[in-house]
Design goal:
This is Truncated RhAG glycoprotein. The chain is mainly α. Helix content is about 70%, strand content about 0%.
């Protein structure tokens, strides 16, 4: 989750999806 887009994903869907 080092990408800014991934950061938004964490807030929108949760850390689990960001790790996928």
């Amino acid at each position: 989750a080092s990408d800014i887009g991934a950061s938004m994903t964490i807030h929108a869907f949760g850390p689990t999806l960001a790790w996928l």
